[in-house]
Design a protein that fits this description.
The complex is a heterodimer. By secondary structure, chain A is an alpha/beta fold. Chain A has ten helices and 20 strands. The chains are: A alpha/beta, B mainly alpha. At the A-B interface, helix 2, helix 3, strand 4 and helix 4 of A face strand 1, helix 2, helix 6 and helix 12 of B.
Chain lengths: 422, 275
Amino acid sequence: MSEIAIRVQEVSKKYRIGLLQTRNDTLRDVIVSSYNRATRRGNKEQPLNEIWALKDLSFEVNQGQLLGIIGRNGAGKSTLLKILSRVTEPTEGSIDIHGRVGSLLEVGTGFHPELTGRENIFLNGAILGMKKREIAEKFDAIVEFSEVGQFIDTPVKRYSSGMYLRLAFAVAAHLEPEILVVDEVLAVGDAEFQRKCLGKMSDVAQQGRTVLFVSHNMSAILRLTQETIVLEKGKMLMRAPSPQAVDYYLSSGFSQLGERTWAADEIPASSAPFSPVALRVKNAQGKISDSLRSTEPITLEVEYSLSSAVTGLRVGVYLLSTRGELVFTSFDTDEGELYEKYPTRAAGHYISRCTIPADLLNEGRFVLGMNASSFRVKRYFQDEQALTFSVDAAGAPGTQWPEPRLGPIRPRIQWKIDKVKK
Amino acid sequence: MPDLSTIHIRPTRGWAALNLKDLWLYRELVFFLTWRDIKVRYKQAVLGIAWAVLQPLLTMVIFSFIFGNLAKLPSDGIPYPLFSYAAVLPWQLFSSALQRSSVSLVGNANLLTKIYFPRLIIPFSAVMASLVDFGIAFLVMIGLMIYYQVWPTLLMLWVIPLTLFALITALAVSLWLSALNVLYRDVQHMIPFLTQFWMYASPVAYSATLIPTGAWRIIYGLNPMAGVIQGFRWALLGAQPPDILLAASIAIVLILLVTGLFYFRRMEKTFADIV
């Protein structure tokens, strides 16, 4: 089984940023800009507004291999999957794919809210490349997997979001291409359903099919894939067995000693008016550090600016273990007092700070992410893995025994021992 | 190992081949997208599919009242309701196909950016979806003919090629417009005016015999829909046969169709990036 399923050779993809930002350009814009260009004759075309989402990427995937792809937002993962699934074309280079490609760039693509579950199974199946006969054969299995049985003849707009996702994934999971390209589908749904999806994915791989799996969920990557590619700025940084790649990605890829700063070109246009400046981890002495003591408080700092006032803004952090488990999520306006004080945050430069109390975290590496959003209105900015830091448990409760304690937290809990009479 | 076909992905430069074979491979998707459009169109409307009948019928009533009763335009000796309905029928087929198809790519942006399939399927199935309304409205035509006791002849069979020609015209124009609409949303604001203008340039509400002979007549005859509408009145009601200029308009539509196909294929690779 060492035949090659996918061969990617020196693939590059160029986007014109100008084109992307003014994408709904109207004729008027075109006329104005071509007039401007004409009057600036002699000036050379500026290549500044071009970015290479992928640059000279080459790799091969064997048949039956489960390959993980990880990288930060904007590293080129999604572009790569889009090229592999032929949604968009590479600017340069070539790809040979042996076999039918099924892509799950988003579950539920093409679902129509007005149609019933049954109708959507057929429609979505056809969109994903299944034949009508094939769908009919798998219909019962799909319904069973999705657990929406009794609502199968109800329009999906009446479904809960969980039911909707289950049905969408069920259709996609029953696709049987030789090569499956998956992007973040597991980032949705409840834990139970995620487990089910992961199980289905490993079944797919055991049937000898090739799977390319993009995820931010490191534990899913570790569970599912043997080998992983780390992308950064459109280039492949490393390809290694998954545990090594994940470790490399989490530790050296983007952490600069307890501080992550954002350069202007790293901030997507869609995040306006919010623009992140820095995320910092500080020790009890107020110094920026990436190795902290569990017995001392840890301060987290988000620095950002707002170019205009934002209503209902909340800026917060996610703390994850390096296995991808979420330890907690917290926002700066969680407390009622601050929530009432900042219904609208005026334009300006801000720092939101919080302190993780001493004696809470266990030893190990942690991943810190951040999010700025207005609840149910807009997510301005999100980076699930902005930086990592490590926690040392020296002096923490229980360290008299040199044994690892499992779990992301190691709180100091008051015990009392009473001798009781029988 | 199953027999694996190999897909080669290369950047295409300049004009792409049409690859109509691909379209055939994806014929089931054409069917499903067409079916979706039809299925969804009258959902959550109390009158539902009755709208397919009401729209042409009400248009006909208005035309009959204004142009037949008030303006007293000639109708070639045919009862005005029948005369105008025979024109509204192919006209609404054409205009709804054109309007739906021209905005179809933008309307299906979520599919374009997520899944690969030959993009031609989208405007194509949008055109096909208009056929169902047409079929239902056609039954009303038969009812009207029975009411006015106009008995069809074998000429009626001409309706089939004429319908096909109206669809191809809609497709040819919307290949251009749908691809352009991805780039310039001006197109979708322009389409209502285009169809309105086109309707007045076609003998929908009046008789083609009102157009004076000469240069105007020639320009008029080159409008493919003028030929189709006249053809409908001729095939169903025995009015004057369409101009010989219909042949010239067929040539124009074919040119528009072929160039439209190539333009569409050329733009296709950028759809996902700019839609």
